[in-house]
Amino acid sequence: MSQTLVEVEVAYALPHKQLILTIQVPEGTSLYDAVVQSRMVEHFPDLDLSQASLGVFGKLEKSPKTRAVCAGERIEIYRPLLTDPKEARKARAAKAQEARAKS
Length: 103
Hints:
The chain is of the alpha+beta class. The protein has three helices and five strands; from the N terminus they run E-E-H-H-E-E-E-H. The chain has a single domain, classed as Ubiquitin-like (UB roll). Helices cover 29% and strands 28% of the residues. The protein has a five-stranded mixed beta sheet, covered by helices on one side. Pfam families: Ub-RnfH. This is UPF0125 protein C8N29_101214.
């Protein structure tokens, strides 16, 4: 008896290089396992899947190792933020306030 395969996309992007791979995986495969099977790390050797967050169509998935893929989904591998958004806003506000004080 053959196992049903579903087609999904796996996406990862750096500022200078982006890649979307279309793969087929057995129905019931977890998001994490689909990413591993995509062999994305062969294209991005510095990618550490154990530390990466995963999502589907822009929505972060909290349990990528247990959540099964659905046909047609785009699994996205997210890079960590370089700067905390809250801290960046505070720094911009402080810089703007300083500029106003000098005027």
